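Exercise 7.
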Amino acid sequence: MSTEIVMHYVLVYILPSIYLYILGTYILVRSYSYKRAKLVAASIFCSAIGYTADFIRVLLPIEFSHFLQLYIVLFAVNLSFALTIHVIYDIVKTIKPFKMPLIPYILYGFPVLILGVGFLESQAIIFAIVYIAMLAVTLFLLYTGYKYTKIKEYRFFFKACLSFIAIAFTGLAFWKLDWSHLTDVLPATPGLFLTALSSTLISYLLVKTNIIPSTVKRYSALLESSATPIVILDKNKRVLEVNEIGKQVYQMKLHTDFRNYFNYTNEPAVLDQLFTLLDAESYIKGYRITYLDENGIENIVLMDASKVKMVEETYYYCMIHEVTLEFQRRSLNEHLAYHDVLTGIYNRTYFEEEVKRKLAQDVKKDSALIICDLNFFKAINDTYGHQTGDNVLVFTANCFRENLPRPHILARLGGDEFVMFFEEFESKEQFLQQINEVRHTFQVNLYKQDDIEIEIVPSLGIAFVEEDGVDYEQLYHTCDVRMYEDKKIIKEQYLQRQV
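Solution. The predicted structure, written as tokens, is:
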């Protein structure tokens, strides 16, 4: 086999296969908990399997080649396309609810049908009918999504997909006419090249538009929402990351020695012993540390810790449980005094005190106040009951906590009203874009309970420090006015949709 042929096989088959396997793995690792991520990854892996099978096919004798192409390669290609269309259907369904639950089954019926009629003499006609039907379903879904969505990122998604279809058909025309000598760079089954391109495009669009958000974001929100101090250390026991409760309780700062925060201990070597045990066992639960605080009061903590090795770096994860009764009572009272009982976020008292303190200390241009009110919340209570209404409020608080740009202070004013304060954002334009993305998150992630799905529709009023005032009451009033203006616009849009 000549070097030229070997290079042809490497470029046309092997490298695309490796690329697709890596891409599918990346999508799964990045957002494995999302249905759409699993569908996209499955489509990519089907395309990769098709490339691998087509490579094996061209190396086999002709009597085996036809069977492998028909029952493995073509099936993988068609299943990849069906999975991609399913992703588009799942997105469109959140924008324009369909009364057609059989669409996914129809989609997967296409590759099965082609597989079943492969032995018929008239297979070419049936193939053409099936592909035209798949194209018609795809165009219908893309047009429907583009027509009904009001979200800029979604419109970009649908326009990009429609443009891709137009370009793909132009390329197929060139290939059929052999104008561009594409056979030199395409696999023996050209549909594989289309699946690779479509998989790459869909992956890029979903990641770029955050339709399948990263699970890293979820874990970060989980770290921040924990009521237990959690600390991540490097191999030198310096603080790499600490959640909010850890900062408040122990006044921890990044890039400082973790052992300094227990420097009143009456057992000097206790933390060194902890890390010695961790190096030997990798995980320790309930390790007891007794120390004296700055007031000479004895405190006891139980620490759960683990040693994690990632590539060549070593990290220590520590969860600190205070078991001193006095500490527990004090922490509980402080928590109840400044937190909303239902949602667990801050209450009005803490928010007003903290924001007024920040405004008095240093008025910055890159700060903003936002008031949020939920539209149609009374209808939710009346239709589904107050228990569901409370669950919706908890769901809303969690969505805000996970998706708002940091740093922020989030609080519930009462009822269905929330308020938030932001500082240190880079620019007004970027900040407004981030807030719009949060608003769009509610359109994508519906509240689900039993057989019901509820879309949370927030109205927002935004005031920028200095531009709209430096006094808390003035900023609050501006937010309130703008929030009701936003509420009026949203209700008008909703009425137009009903018509």
